[in-house]
Design a protein that fits this description.
Length: 953
């Protein structure tokens, strides 16, 4: 594959203003690499990049009351959340709050609603933008010559929701603001001093300790007329109106009613300006903590979108978000509680590598508050330590107080604590969570059984799946997490100088736990869910790979054998877009070196097909857990450190330029790097805690320049480099001969765009290998009526074969399938993906390939007289979603390149050369995938053949 650079991303006016804001000066890209003072290049890059992305709606959202993730524009400050629904004549702002858990059900309840109605604009156009850089929602509604502009935000620093309205045109419009409870009913209200106070409670049943709240609404305009549960006003053209609602709950303060009223009553234009400034400052600081820049803009947008949602649902000093965050519109699935068998944990993992540790602060409290109940539950079952159920709620309560025969919930909860410590090395944090971790360890110390014959500790009757019945031995999930627990306890204890008598016990268990169970599936060795009990379970979970993530027991420093088993497991799972897998599967796949092109293409699908316009990745199994899909999945492709060895771009697609700044690595190191033309340009590492730094040389076989604190220290060489660092020290590395000025110049530049202009492969070793094997492209054509050719095959095939039949060399791509005689029989198989560096089509770009369709004369799996094997063509998917087969493109003989039209046109049992001038129909577009398509409606029987020497250029 050849590769050509285009240009750097444009440094626009936004970046210029951002640079001024953080005290930087941009250096023109064409200037010499003069020495710069770069105080915080990450902030400038981050602010410029995030401003490119927003959510957009041209019609009101439709998924608001399904009890799960909503498709509405979203706002939040880590406590109060707002989802925006409806058109401007009947718009609803759904208010949720992280602490609004009913004591009657222990489930989270909606807090309230604010209705905004401008009936005179019924039928207006609808254009709404979720501006994530500014954390606001901007609406534009036009009817004839009248336009209403609305801007809504939730203050980052106070529980205040604000909407400003401005009408243009020639006529005034009557408007109404209505305050309702969480079910859309009229609450108890009162009016005083222009403020409408509405009192609500969590749920429909009151109980001791049940949270209550006040919504204190006002309009900063003397003409507003509050009465009952509504405020009436007249919108005059050219005048700005501000609707504000202060929200306080009894969890915030016993004085919640007076505090909310006072907040609303004291609002002035000046006070709002100060709050708006504080809001902008909070989000600017939040975005400045790290950035990524990659060619796939959908995935990049998904990364920033997930972080926007993370910043909106979780904040220090507030309650932790439940399954669906603080966007609570009604009865939420699974009570919206803290599900402990991965959902709750996964929502906090993305705060780690993205360097948003502050967003993790609420996590620990509900876990620690449950300790006494956890001890009691363990004792009731005859165990020491703690046992936690599947679902917990705040204040030591539970909405789903059942183990479902899972002993792993408490150790699953521990994973976040161990990871946070490994990333931050915070002694204070270790002291905070050690009592809990030791109780979890105490349980396992007593629950594990010693097998003298094998010399291993085993886990009995612990189900990886909810409700798995005895026997369930050596759950691979629990094995991974128990390893992680004891490894974390040893590290914390050594660093703090405590638990000297326990460290040998923990080390002994860690070293002698039963091996990860394996089995054979479709000819590949894969991980098994248990050594006895659940084997291979195809239910949309990825339990079989969770010893990798979140267990962190397999990585690029592991044995080749273990890595291959892990990769085989991911292939066999094929759960990229299932309900429960994505939150952990992508990170696991990156950690074991799974094909990075596959990962990028599947992440692309998550960021597009499986994401709402609000950038929320949605799968049925849970809500905020999916904030971890793109964030940790992408971060582990860019930077790995969990084996205490920092690797930059450890699993990155070839020919794909990328850049990241201040991602967090184990040991509390902030790492920045860039890759261009398949070569790492530099690495900057900031040591926040001091201590030993270990990293893999990103320039294999080459020496590097070593700068520390801005001073050249000489060169370094070797495969693994170990350095001692001091607190606050910055280390900068680059290939030998690179000046410090050049490194710092590149730090301040945006990533260069990357495209591929040509592609060629004969599938031989050393050439570009397929991104996918035997995988139907469900979005680019799919499969209908086609099954496996024979022999228990699970479906149609498209995979490399060695030594069977090749046009040149030893390798070729074999295709096969069995058509069932249906009216739409077809199978479009994914082969190559280019989302890392899309393939540009020029005016003269040509697709060329050789194809060998088989008849019964060369394979017994095709019926005599059948020419079904000729109904096959190489197809292309473009980044706009279109394809080659329906583009009107023709082959060298003038025949449509659609597989249906190729039927009977190719000669059986010989190599046919097919060429297509794709530039004639697709010039200027970019290719995202190469497919192999079979298409013959009504066909019955097998088809099989080979494709070789594919080229585009």
């Amino acid at each position: 594959m050849t590769f050509k650079l285009r240009h750097r991303r444009r440094v626009g006016t936004l970046l210029a203003s951002a640079l001024v804001a953080v005290g930087l000066t941009a250096v023109p890209s064409g200037s010499s690499a003069a020495v710069q003072t770069v105080s915080n290049p990450t902030a400038a890059q981050a602010l410029r990049t995030v401003a490119q992305f927003q959510g957009e709606w041209d019609s009101p959202p439709t998924t608001l009351h399904n009890g799960g993730t909503v498709d509405a524009p979203l706002l939040g400050n880590g406590d109060v959340g707002v989802a925006v629904g409806g058109s401007i004549d009947d718009q609803t702002f759904y208010l949720g709050k992280n602490d609004f858990f009913s004591t009657a059900t222990n489930g989270i309840e909606p807090l309230g609603r604010i209705g905004l109605s401008v009936p005179g604009l019924a039928g207006s156009s609808h254009h709404v933008v979720q501006n994530i850089a500014k954390a606001q929602v901007e609406g534009t509604y036009t009817l004839g010559d009248e336009t209403l502009s609305a801007t809504s935000w939730v203050s980052a620093t106070r529980n205040l929701f604000v909407t400003t309205l401005r009408l243009s045109g020639s006529r005034a419009q009557a408007a109404t603001v209505t305050v309702q409870d969480g079910r859309g009913q009229t609450p108890a209200t009162s009016v005083k001093g222009g403020v409408l106070d509405a009192d609500v409670q969590a749920g429909t049943t009151d109980a001791p300790g049940n949270p209550h709240a006040r919504i204190a609404a006002t309009v900063l305009d003397g003409s507003a007329r509050p009465s009952g549960n509504r405020i009436s006003l007249t919108l005059e053209p050219g005048v700005t109106y501000t609707v504000a609602a202060a929200i306080q709950s009894s969890r915030d303060t016993p004085r919640y009613q007076s505090v909310a009223h006072s907040m609303a009553a004291s609002l002035t234009g000046g006070a709002l300006t100060k709050l708006r400034t504080a809001h902008a400052s909070w989000w600017r600081d939040y975005w400045s903590r790290s950035f990524v820049q990659i060619p796939d803009q959908a995935v990049e947008k998904g990364w920033y979108g997930s972080l926007y949602l993370l910043g909106s649902v979780s904040r220090a000093g507030k309650y932790a978000p439940g399954l669906w965050g603080n966007w609570i519109t009604g009865n939420m699935n699974w009570y919206g509680d803290y599900h402990t068998n991965y959902n709750y944990e996964a929502g906090f993992y993305p705060a780690l590598s993205t360097n948003r540790i502050a967003q993790m602060e609420p996590y620990d409290k509900p876990v620690l508050d449950w300790m006494e109940r956890g001890k009691a539950k363990a004792a009731a079952h005859g165990y020491k330590g703690v046992l936690y159920p599947v679902g917990i709620s705040p204040h030591g309560t539970s909405a789903a107080d059942d183990l479902y025969n899972q002993k792993s919930n408490a150790v699953n909860l521990a994973s976040v604590m161990v990871m946070r410590y490994q990333y931050t090395r915070s002694a204070d944090y270790a002291r905070k969570v050690l009592p809990y971790l030791k109780q979890v360890a105490l349980f396992w110390e007593n629950y594990l059984t010693w097998d003298e014959a094998s010399g291993t500790y085993n886990i009995h009757n612990d189900a990886p799946q909810e409700g798995g019945v005895y026997p369930q031995t050596n759950s691979i999930l629990s094995l991974g997490l128990v390893h992680l627990l004891f490894q974390g306890l040893v590290d914390m204890s050594k660093d703090l100088g405590v638990n000297d008598s326990l460290i040998p016990v923990w080390q002994n268990i860690d070293s002698k736990l039963a091996p990860l169970p394996t089995m054979t599936r479709n000819g590949q060795t894969v991980f098994r869910q248990t050594s006895e009990g659940a084997g291979w379970v195809s239910d949309g979970n990825d339990i079989a790979i969770q010893a990798v993530y979140p267990g962190l027991q397999v990585g690029l420093n592991s044995s080749d054998e273990l890595l291959q088993i892990a990769r085989n497991t991911i292939t066999q799972l094929n759960n990229w877009h299932s309900d429960n897998s994505p939150a952990t599967l992508y990170a696991a796949a990156a950690m074991v070196g799974y094909n990075p092109s596959t990962l990028m293409d599947e992440l692309h699908a998550e960021a597009t097909t499986y994401s709402y316009p609000n950038m929320a990745v949605h799968h049925f199994g849970g809500g905020v857990e999916n904030l971890n899909v793109i964030t940790s999945g992408l971060d582990e492709m860019l930077l790995q450190s969990f084996q205490k060895d920092i690797k930059v771009f450890p699993n990155w697609p070839a020919n794909s330029n990328a850049k990241f700044g201040d991602l967090l690595a184990y040991g509390n190191f902030l790492v920045s790097s860039s890759i261009r033309d398949n070569t790492v340009e530099y690495v900057r590492i900031k040591s926040q805690s001091g201590g030993k730094l270990t990293f893999t040389n990103p320039w294999p076989g080459r020496s590097m320049e070593y700068y520390a604190g801005g001073v050249r220290k000489g060169t370094l060489s070797g495969t693994t480099i170990k350095l001692n660092t001091s607190v606050g020290q910055t280390i900068e590395l680059a290939p030998a001969g690179t000046s410090l000025a050049t490194i710092r110049h590149e730090l301040a530049q945006p990533a260069e765009s990357s495209t591929t202009e040509s592609f060629a492969t004969g599938f031989e070793a050393g050439q570009t290998q397929p991104t996918w094997t035997d995988t139907v492209d469900t979005k680019g054509g799919g499969s209908y009526g086609v099954t496996g050719l024979c022999c228990g095959l699970l479906g149609p095939q498209a995979a490399v074969r060695i030594g069977e039949r090749a046009h040149t060399g030893e390798a070729t791509l074999m295709y096969s399938g069995y058509a069932g005689g249906g009216p739409y029989d077809h199978a479009y198989m994914q082969v190559y993906g280019f989302n890392g560096a899309p393939l540009t089509v020029r005016d003269d770009t040509t697709l060329s390939y050789w194809i060998f369709p088989q008849s019964n004369a060369t394979t017994p799996w095709v019926a005599e007289g059948s020419d079904d094997s000729t109904c096959v063509a190489v197809d292309l998917i473009f980044t706009d979603g279109s394809n080659l087969r329906d583009s009107g493109a023709v082959d060298q003989s003038g025949t449509s390149i659609h597989p249906v039209r190729q039927c009977g046109r190719l000669e059986l049992d010989t190599w046919n050369h097919v060429t297509v001038n794709i530039g004639e129909v697709k010039a200027g577009q970019t290719i995202s995938k190469i497919l192999v398509g079979y298409d013959r409606p009504g066909a019955t029987g097998g088809y099989r053949g080979y494709i070789d020497d594919v080229s585009i250029g």
